[in-house]
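User: I'm writing a tutorial on reading structure tokens. Could you give me a worked example: one chain, its sequence, then its tokens, then a sentence or two explaining what the tokens reveal?
Assistant: Sure. Here is the example chain.
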Amino acid sequence: MRSFIEEGCPPGHVHWIRSLLASFEGGDEDTQLLTYDTFRERLGGVSPVHVSLGPEPPPGRSRVLRRLRSISVLRRAWKHIPGGEVYFLSYDPFVMTWPTTHHRDIQVFEHNNVDRAEESRRYRAAYRMLPHHLRHICHEPYIAEYIASRYGKRTRVIPHPVRPVSASPESVGRTLEALGEYYFAPTPCPEAAVVQRAAAELADRGVRLVTRAPPGRETAYRDLFDNVEILAGRVDYDAVILAAQGIAILNRYQYRVSGVFFEALSARKRCLMRDCLFARHARETYSDAEIELLHR
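And here are its predicted structure tokens:
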């Protein structure tokens, strides 16, 4: 049995999880996905058998309480895992010590944990304390090599899935008519100065920046930027990508990858990226990508 666990349920991972699970299809092993009911509905028609972790709890304000709740949920989840490979699609180092003590074949997907460990002493200590029998799955070899050399972890590289980006010509046309010439930044950037720099650079070319605001900051973002279009509510995400002149990736990605980059690669869109390790690696590695670094 192969088991996938997603307890964090990050909204930005829906496309990635769909593509990833599809890449595991076709083997001889039975597959199950353990997650909350509402998150399973968001994923749509994925093939693994769904094992419910119950209704998705409301987000709590206290990290300690959230982590205690996660440990409780994983205790229940473990009763549904008969053996075989176990994959955590995302994980919290502060939570991962308990469920790994009695199961040897566990693999965890790396997202932003290494970058957070580099920035926080406390987080770094928790990351170092993760059991050494865990295998850390990375989407790029340079990240796996860094984790192995700096933290002594066992690693594995699985290429990031590249999903097809598609929308109807009518939807793309309506989006283009509504937004004009623009670059789209799908992932909100919490650093206002970086958003301003990108918007100013694009404005010099006669192009607007279209982005989303961090949750709960839509009004503040609109008041802060007079040259940035803020998308709110439900939009045809793929149509907004396909109608754009290019994609802006404004957050810093050091030892993690940008899923948006691979969507841009699939849609054959040029990228304006903040200068960081992943941006430089992508420019050297992906010959089909057209990447410009934001320096200003």
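What the tokens reveal: The mean pLDDT is 88. The longest helix spans residues 63-78.
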